[in-house]
């Protein structure tokens, strides 16, 4: 079945960028002249996905406004012969069908995804992209995962080798078997392990293809001691129930714009002005 939908969880409080994220969502921070989330929507569109579901918290409606038409601004720019300034964004607004869902308490990624359950039909495969991870390459990164999902008939998670001293900032996979140079079948996952407990140096990057059954496994996942459901724990339950899950190495160049250092690196290397 063709993958036609992408979910972007964007309900977090943006703690690493406070205080600016008190009133400007992290996903709206400028990466040169575009907000981070626009790069993700563009990646979806480039992968031929036109249904995008965005999970917001109630204070983050400025994201919704950004993806709404603004004829007043369009008319002013047309008069000045400057329509090119919003042409890319307006093309996305024209072609993408946006849906919005709300997470009222910041209870983690699995809980955020749960809010978009009605967006996905039973038995459907769907894509997820975390807006912190901006990836540039010759092919939209999510398209590689969609192709692997189809070929291997399973769920797929993007991974990247990272230095072991940084591994505890990520979800980490344990390999079951190697399929080829870039693809592995996953035995299990662990969220943010201590360096000495990490099962590999392959860190989860924010691109996934999931099966709709994820939504029935999230509520079955045991809570952590801080009462959170961790997405890797849910995926472990699915693996134990026989769902094949694959890891695919990121092919493009990844920028972790979820940290001030990564955000700055992006600006230094991708100045579109
Ligand atoms: C999230 C995921 C983590 C993943 C990371 C990639 O963590 O929970 O598994 O490795 O994104 O960027 P966060 O960076 O939101 O803390």
TrEMBL record:
Coiled coil: none
Pfam families documented for this protein: NTP_transferase
Catalytic activity: alpha-D-glucose 1-phosphate + UTP + H(+) = UDP-alpha-D-glucose + diphosphate
Keywords from the UniProt entry: Nucleotidyltransferase, Transferase
Source taxon at top rank: Bacteria
Molecular function, one GO term: UTP:glucose-1-phosphate uridylyltransferase activity
InterPro entries for the chain: GalU_uridylyltTrfase_bac/arc, NTP_transferase_dom, Nucleotide-diphossugar_trans
Keyword Nucleotidyltransferase: yes
Entry keyword Repeat: no
EC nos: 2.7.7.9
Biological process, per Gene Ontology: UDP-alpha-D-glucose metabolic process
Domain Nucleotidyl transferase per the UniProt entry, residue ranges: 7-268
Family named by the database record: Belongs to the UDPGP type 2 family.
Protein name per the record: UTP--glucose-1-phosphate uridylyltransferase
Organism: Candidatus Chromulinivorax destructor
């Amino acid at each position: 079945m063709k993958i036609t939908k992408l979910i972007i969880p964007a309900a977090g409080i943006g703690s690493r960028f406070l205080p600016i994220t008190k009133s400007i969502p992290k996903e709206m921070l400028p990466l040169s002249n575009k907000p981070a989330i626009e790069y993700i929507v563009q990646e979806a569109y480039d992968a031929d996905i036109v249904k995008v579901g965005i999970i917001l918290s109630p204070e983050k409606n400025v994201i919704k406004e950004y993806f709404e038409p603004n004829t007043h601004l369009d008319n002013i720019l047309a008069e000045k012969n400057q329509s090119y300034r919003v042409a890319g964004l307006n093309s996305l607004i024209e072609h993408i069908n946006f849906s919005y869902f709300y997470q009222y308490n910041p209870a983690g990624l699995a809980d955020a995804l749960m809010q978009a359950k009605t967006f996905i039909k039973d038995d459907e495969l769907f894509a997820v992209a975390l807006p912190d991870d901006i990836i540039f390459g010759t092919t939209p990164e999510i398209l590689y995962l969609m192709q692997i999902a189809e070929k291997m008939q399973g769920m797929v998670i993007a991974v990247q080798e990272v230095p072991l001293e940084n591994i505890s900032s990520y979800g980490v996979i344990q390999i079951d078997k190697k399929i080829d140079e870039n693809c592995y079948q996953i035995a299990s996952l662990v969220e943010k392990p201590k360096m000495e407990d990490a099962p590999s140096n392959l860190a989860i990057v924010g691109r996934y293809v999931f099966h709709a059954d994820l939504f029935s496994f999230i509520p079955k996942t045991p809570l952590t001691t801080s009462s959170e459901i961790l997405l890797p724990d849910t995926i472990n339950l699915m693996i134990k129930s026989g769902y094949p899950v694959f890891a695919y190495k990121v092919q493009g160049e990844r920028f972790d714009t979820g940290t001030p250092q990564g955000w700055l690196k992006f600006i230094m290397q991708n100045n579109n002005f």
